[in-house]
């Protein structure tokens, strides 16, 4: 007689070196802890969609290279070789051009007419002021590799190990003596980054923390070291992000670090670390990290050439950091089309990796600008080693009755797709579907019978849903018998 065996739903992507060891994956979905009053400890929901934000008919060419808020009412976007201004409704004006193709580092000061400092991937420094972009003519500044802003001054990272600063609220004026050496280590400086009133000087294998120093008022470089000799470097200058006064970045050992005040704990799991290590040096240098938030979920997104991993800090408070990662994949791709995210006008705006389109992250949207967004959950192995399992049925408790009043049948009568893998996730077979309920059919559950015998090594069950509706999975069972 069959026994109901709980299927462990994947609360995160935790893949082993071999899929035969661990094959849990959560793609385009996130975990929400239900608390003591919930029917189950957590529910899997489909990740937020993308809604087009810039004005319809806008035609900018090229990838998003950088976004920065000039004011509460104006966003500046670097899209290919074009530089554009957007208001809070997404209406745009072209303001200039900037050659090159790599991402740019951006910082804004608080001058009467705010200035934006721009550092390109080839070490050029430009200033955007009053909608005019000007190449810096101050020869006192060596070629910078990064820029940020702290206490009235632009800060410039120099690869040879110095940090320079501008004059007070003047991005165009740099004193030749306005610098200091980050000399706790002889490594190359990768980036200067500001967080919570300090600046962090990241080297390839080291980190120093500096702060404004009032005892140095009147000096060209009014900053002093707080903590040095931190043996954590930076891989990928664009992977650093901040939230909750904490920093998160990829260190020189391809480990994602999360911490504050100079301390940093390992945040990544082995699956994330293997993905980073699998990139070339050039690909690691172009990884992008950013932060966004929706409905209480604070997300750090790390995007590489062939992956996008997201760390859900809200879930991590319950599960631990390394067990709170999910993946994002746009339809037909192995990574997310979205690049860097920035908060502006009450939304998180993201740019497209290959064209000039801008979107906002929308928890009430279930597509990516009209393209399918597929929730995909690979459950950890179900097994009874050293016995085999003869599976009589699979039963899934889903958020049901969410079909739309739509002429599109796949949205009016959405389905859950179920299949399995007996080879550690290398291949999947025997896909079957069942309705998760038309509008109002809230008593709908799913049971599909006769799945045959799995091997001693167990079976990975995969659940997928692609309809443009709320997608949620609360629990699942297999009805199975142990057999030799």
Describe it for me?
This protein is mainly β. It folds into 2 domains: 3-47 and 375-483, Jelly Rolls, CATH 2.60.120.260; 49-371, Methylamine Dehydrogenase, Chain H (7 Propeller). Helices cover 5% and strands 48% of the residues. The strands form 10 sheets. Strands 1, 4, 5, 37, 40 and 42 form a 6-stranded antiparallel β-sheet that branches. It is elongated, with a radius of gyration of 25 Å.
Brief write-up:
With 484 residues, this protein is mainly beta. The longest helix has 8 residues, at 270-277. The mean pLDDT is 95.
Keywords for this entry:
484 residues; mainly beta; Jelly Rolls; 2 domains; 4 helices; 5% helix; 48% strand; elongated
Global morphology: elongated
SS-derived structural category: mainly beta
Q: Regarding CATH, which class of the largest domain? A: Mainly Beta
- The multimeric state of the shown protein is single chain
Give me the CATH fold name of the largest domain: Methylamine Dehydrogenase, Chain H
Mean pLDDT: 95
Termini separation comes to 15 Å
Number of helices: 4
Biggest pleated sheet: 6 strands, antiparallel
Question: Taking Cα atoms only, what radius of gyration do you get, to the nearest Å?
Answer: 25 Å
Contiguous runs where pLDDT drops below 50 for at least 5 residues: none
Q: What is the CATH architecture annotation of the largest domain?
A: 7 Propeller
- Tell me roughly what share of residues is in helical segments: under 10%
Domains counted in the coordinates: how many? 2
Task: Explain the layout of strands and helices.
Blueprint: E1 3-7, E2 14-15, E3 23-27, E4 29-33, E5 42-46, E6 49-52, E7 64-71, E8 74-79, E9 82-86, E10 92-97, E11 105-108, E12 115-119, E13 125-129, E14 132-135, E15 146-150, E16 153-158, E17 162-165, E18 179-181, E19 189-195, E20 198-203, E21 207-212, E22 223-230, E23 241-243, E24 246-250, E25 256-259, E26 265-266, H1 270-277, H2 281-285, E27 288-294, E28 297-304, E29 307-312, H3 313-319, E30 325-327, E31 338-344, E32 347-352, E33 358-362, E34 367-368, E35 371-372, E36 375-378, E37 388-398, H4 409-412, E38 415-421, E39 429-435, E40 446-454, E41 460-465, E42 472-483
Antiparallel strand pairs: 1-42, 2-3, 3-36, 4-5, 5-42, 6-33, 7-8, 8-9, 9-10, 11-12, 12-13, 13-14, 15-16, 16-17, 17-18, 19-20, 20-21, 21-22, 23-24, 24-25, 25-26, 27-28, 28-29, 29-30, 31-32, 32-33, 34-35, 36-41, 37-40, 37-42, 38-39, 38-41
């Amino acid at each position: 007689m069959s026994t109901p065996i709980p299927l462990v739903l994947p609360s995160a992507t935790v893949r082993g070196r071999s899929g035969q060891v661990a094959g849990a994956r959560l793609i385009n979905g996130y975990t929400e802890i239900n608390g003591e009053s919930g029917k189950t400890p957590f529910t899997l929901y489909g990740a937020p969609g993308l809604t087009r934000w810039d004005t319809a008919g806008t035609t900018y060419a090229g990838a998003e290279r950088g976004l920065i808020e000039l004011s509460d009412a104006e966003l500046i976007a670097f899209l290919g070789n074009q530089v554009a201004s957007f208001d809070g409704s997404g209406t745009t004006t072209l303001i200039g051009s900037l050659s090159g193709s790599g991402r740019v580092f951006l910082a804004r000061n608080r001058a009467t007419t705010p200035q934006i400092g721009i550092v390109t991937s080839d070490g050029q420094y430009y200033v955007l002021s009053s909608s005019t972009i000007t190449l810096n003519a101050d020869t006192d500044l060596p070629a910078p590799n990064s820029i940020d802003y702290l206490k009235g001054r632009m800060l410039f990272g120099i690869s040879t190990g110095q940090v320079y600063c501008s004059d007070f609220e003047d991005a165009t004026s740099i004193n030749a003596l306005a610098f200091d050496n980050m000399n706790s280590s002889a490594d190359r400086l990768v980036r200067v980054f500001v967080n919570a009133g300090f600046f962090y000087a990241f080297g390839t294998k080291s980190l120093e923390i500096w702060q404004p120093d009032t005892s140095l008022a009147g000096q060209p470089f009014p900053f002093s070291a707080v903590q040095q000799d931190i043996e954590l470097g930076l891989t990928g200058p664009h992977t650093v992000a901040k939230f909750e006064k904490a920093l998160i970045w990829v260190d020189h050992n391809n480990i994602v670090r999360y911490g504050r005040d100079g301390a940093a704990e390992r945040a990544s799991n082995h699956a994330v670390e293997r993905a980073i290590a699998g990139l070339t040096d050039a690909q690691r240098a172009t990884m992008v990290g950013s932060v966004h938030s929706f409905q209480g979920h604070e997300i750090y997104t790390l995007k590489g050439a062939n992956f996008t991993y997201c760390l859900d800090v809200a879930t991590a408070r319950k599960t631990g950091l390394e067990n709170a990662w999910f993946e994002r994949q746009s339809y037909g791709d192995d990574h997310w089309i979205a690049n860097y995210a920035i908060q502006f006008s009450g939304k998180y705006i993201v740019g497209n990796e290959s064209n000039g389109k801008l979107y906002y992250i929308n928890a009430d949207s279930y597509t990516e600008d009209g393209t399918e967004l597929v929730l995909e959950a690979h459950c950890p192995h179900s097994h009874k080693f050293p016995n085999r399992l003869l599976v009589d049925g699979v039963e899934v408790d889903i958020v049901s009755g969410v079909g739309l009043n739509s002429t599109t049948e796949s949205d009016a009568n959405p389905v859950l797709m179920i299949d399995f893998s007996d080879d550690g996730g290398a291949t999947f077979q025997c896909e079957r579907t069942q309705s998760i309920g038309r509008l109002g059919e809230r008593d709908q559950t799913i049971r599909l019978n006769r799945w045959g015998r799995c091997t001693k090594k167990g079976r990975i069950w995969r659940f997928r849903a692609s309809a443009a509706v709320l997608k949620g999975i609360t629990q699942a069972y297999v009805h199975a018998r142990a057999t030799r």
